């Protein structure tokens, strides 16, 4: 599968079938905490990077093979709303009768076309990491065409027309947006957005910038109190869906989209009676694989190749 992966365990969306309608690391932000590294395809121009019919074909096929999923989730290895046909893809995916979610940075919600594209999704999960322009520039490092006030206005407008749930995610980074003052500014904006849920997240996987750290427990607790957030993020657990006949390649494929911890790789191997040491040793000798130590855990990351129409 080229565009669809999973089901993967998600802390917010249960067992989720991921759909990536854009090439790897294509984004209009370059967040300091991004688990995919710095943005190398930095764009704010929407287009069809791939043939939408090809994406749909994979969605329908994957749904047939995986009937025990909770959501079909458009997520991308970057920003999925950069895909011009995302509205069409959402509407078509809903024909499967599974709920459809979109994980987005929310930047393009200032564009009416994007708001209309996302309005039929069952759940939209935009990010809001800053309560003012200065922090926005520091943490999300947006494309020059994206202005903070416009992005916030788009979020407010979207909240009025959406048909499904709106769950906001706030990523807290130590020293950048974890003070009471910064969180209160985010809270003030959210009063006009009126989301159904607010999630606090922290950089639990190796970030684009090594200095983007997890805040102190007290700051997270304070933010939780101010934002009345739904959950505080932790390490996810659960089963990844992999083809046991191609276990090594399948693990690398997951690592392209989602850094895997050593214990997760072991868990996948043991499920299929494969010795984890063999796979992990092969990964350590594979030039496409990077091993990173972060918060006393070992992560494995694979840098994907850029694909898609130029
Ligand atoms: S975290 Fe999301 S929005 Fe930020 S740079 Fe990475 S892919 Fe883009």
Structure in words:
The chain has 310 residues and is α/β, with parallel strands linked by helices. The protein folds into 2 domains: 4-235, TIM Barrel (Alpha-Beta Barrel), CATH 3.20.20.70; 242-310, Orthogonal Bundle (Arc Repressor Mutant, subunit A), CATH 1.10.10. Helices cover 34% and strands 18% of the residues. It binds iron/sulfur cluster.
Entry summary:
With 310 residues, this protein is an alpha/beta fold. Helix content is 34%, strand content 18%.
SSE blueprint:
Blueprint: E1 4-10, E2 14-19, E3 26-27, E4 41-42, H1 52-65, E5 71-74, H2 86-93, E6 100-104, H3 112-118, E7 123-126, H4 133-140, H5 148-161, E8 165-171, H6 180-193, E9 197-201, H7 217-227, H8 247-257, E10 260-261, H9 262-271, H10 276-284, E11 289-294, E12 297-302
Parallel strand pairs: 2-5, 3-4, 5-6, 6-7, 7-8, 8-9
Antiparallel strand pairs: 1-2, 10-12, 11-12
Helix pairs in contact: 1-2, 2-3, 6-7, 9-10
The structure holds iron/sulfur cluster.
